[in-house]
Amino acid sequence: MENKLICGDKFIYGDDTILLPISLNLPSKINFEGDTFVINTFLHVSLVCIEKIIEKYNVSLLDFENKIINDFCEFIQKNEIKKVNYTNDFKIAFKRDKKTIVVMCDVPNLNKFFDLINKKYGLNIEYPPLHVTLYTLPGKLGIFLTNSDDIQKLTKSIPNPLNQTL
Questions:
Q1: Taking Cα atoms as reference points, which of 109, 129, 106, 19 lies closest to residue 69?
Q2: Structure confidence at residue 3 (pLDDT)
Q3: Are 16 and 70 in contact (CB under 8 A)?
């Protein structure tokens, strides 16, 4: 699916996910544990992974995707979601032939959105482990990390590989 702008062009919807684009000044390549990683071509925070929610929580509500997008766009009218607070918690993620380097982060107010949709749709969606995929192996895509199980099973903590603070 092609990325499209939503919510007055403030957010992007792509890969069935509401995304917050970000800008960081990072080296284009880094070496870590014997691998050369390249900067992710589209730096963003995956805020709401709608398809993963539908799959994990067996949501059968008609037009759930559009309902969540509309709910999100209404929510941000009164609740600012644009600031990204980076932690110093870097991880390397592994899945099949992919490896990525991510930094964990927090986006204030996003948990309130999940509280709202949980209540509105009778769900119990876990607040997602917010992160930015900084680097991937050349020619490879990122790895979806949508809940605490993914973080536990697919990642390990690493020291900051950048020689700079985000």
A1: 19
A2: 87
A3: no
CA-CA-CA-CA torsion sign (16, 62, 56, 81): positive
pLDDT in tens, 13-33: 998 999 999 999 999 999 999
The DSSP secondary-structure symbol of 25 reads -
**Whether residue 1 has pLDDT greater than 60:** no
Residue pLDDT, tens place only, 123-155: 999 999 999 999 999 999 889 898 899 999 999
The tokens describing 81, both together, are 């979601």
d(CA 30, CA 114): 35
Give 5's contacts (C-beta < 8 A, 6+ positions apart): 11, 12, 13
Residue 32 gets the label, from left (phi > 0), alpha (psi -120 to 50) or beta, of beta
Find the helix packing angle between 110-121 and 64-78, rounded to 10°.
Answer: 130
**Cβ within 8 Å of residue 78, ≥6 positions away:** none
What's the DSSP call for residue 128?
P
Which is nearest to 31 in space by CA: 163, 161, 164?
A: 161
- The encoded tokens of residue 36 equal 């050369």
Does the pTM of the predicted model rise above 0.85? yes
| Cα separation of the two ends of the chain | 30
